[in-house]
Amino acid sequence: MPVNASVFDIIGPVMVGPSSSHTAGACKIANTARKIVDEGFNEVDFYLHGSFAKTYKGHGTNRALVGGVLGFEPEDDRIINAFSYADEAGIKYKFIETDLGEVHPNTVRMVFKYPGDHEDVDVQGTSIGGGAMVINRIMGQPIEYYAKRPTLFMGYGEQKGVIAFVSNILYDNGYNIHTMKTIKDGDSVMLVCELDEPLTDEALETIKNGKDFDFIKYIG
Q1: Which residues on adjacent β-strands are paired with residue 93?
Q2: Cα-only R_g, the chain
Q3: Which helix (H) or strand (E) is 123 found in, with range?
Q4: Quick check: 37 and 112 in contact, CB under 8 A?
Q5: pTM of the full structure
Q6: Structural contact between residues 93 and 106, judged by C-beta atoms closer than 8 angstroms
Q7: What number of other Cβ atoms are within 10 A of residue 177's Cβ?
């Protein structure tokens, strides 16, 4: 048992479904992705990899994923009827068995689609056991997000001074940065900043307006 084990680590999550990895973890992936993307999506394609692809019907992964994008938590018994709730909300969904490459077998790529000219948004996540999960890609860019702390995601084209700018704003507003990571893919950069306390709307707006971000999202 790990030294800092929590009750969650020892006995697993309270959940609806037969498998913490295939139901609780799947629901958390989709629920977290829903918080990352813009509101207003009306369709989600789920690309299922590995064991997710092989067992998603029998283990209820499909219902858990749909419930997650509707905002349900793993313990919400509405997950059982997630398809009906999605139909009522006007959200379409598809499950596509695929090979996502050299990734964990419990991995799903979700493509959120919107009416009009809004660009599709894709988020990839992995269920890592015991109901825990990690978001490992946003719009094709690799990240590592476990949804345990208030986190700010910032995507931008290569430019000078972004890290210093964000750090100074947070320092000036009395925030402690728990972790800050940059992931580069060519000229594209994803900056992921975990905080020890929630970010105020004022501080968030200051950051949003201070640099030329292609993508910025805060999850408290």
Answers
A1: 44
A2: 18
A3: strand 121-129
A4: yes
A5: 0.82
A6: no
A7: 14
Q: Provide the phi-psi class of 176: left if phi over 0, else alpha when psi is between -120 and 50, else beta.
A: beta
Q: Which amino acid is at 169?
A: I
Structure tokens at 196: 């020890």
On the question of pLDDT at 36 being above 70, the answer is yes
Q: Following DSSP, what letter does each residue of 139-199 receive, concatenated?
A: TTEEEEE-S-S-EEEEEEES-TTHHHHHHHHHHHTTPPEEEEEEEEETTEEEEEEEESSPP
- Please provide residue 152's backbone torsions phi and psi, each rounded to the nearest 5 degrees: -115, 125
- 183-203: per-residue pLDDT in tens? 888 888 889 999 999 999 999
Share of the chain above pLDDT 70, in %: 90
Widest Cα–Cα separation across the chain: 52
DSSP for 50-109 reads HHHHHHTTTTTHHHHHHHHHTT--TT-GGGGGHHHHHHHHT-EEEEEEE--SSS-SSEEE
DSSP letter for 21, please. Answer: I
Q: Which helix (H) or strand (E) holds 125?
A: strand 121-129
Residues recorded for the chain: 220
